[in-house]
Specification:
Blueprint (H helix, E strand, L loop, with lengths): L11 H12 L5 H15 L12 H13 L3 H23 L1
Length: 95
């Protein structure tokens, strides 16, 4: 992750993990989060591997619900919040 110019931005660890997982075709929470943000991330210059899932939002929520039960909703919102924070910080850094 340190080799990325955006590695110090908030949420960069989650995005880097997700990119790595997508590149290795691993179905992880981080990969699903990055798949959700793929269009925006690509528009900001991040190379995001193509994901076969058409509905990563649904897949992420189902995964969180299976792992976390009643806390799935808040965990989902927290993960998406980290993604949005990263996207906004990267947009500012690119400006």
């Amino acid at each position: 992750m340190a080799s990325q110019p955006w590695s110090a931005l908030p949420g960069a660890d989650l995005v880097a993990d997700g990119l790595e997982d997508l590149a290795h075709n691993r179905d992880t929470i981080a990969a699903l989060v990055v798949a959700i943000g793929a269009p925006k991330l690509r528009s900001l210059g991040v190379v995001v591997p193509v994901r076969s899932s058409l509905l990563p939002e649904h897949a992420l929520y189902a995964r969180l619900q299976a792992e976390n039960g009643r806390t799935a909703h808040s965990r989902y919102n927290a993960l998406v919040g980290r993604l949005v924070s990263f996207e906004r910080a990267l947009a500012c850094a690119n400006a």
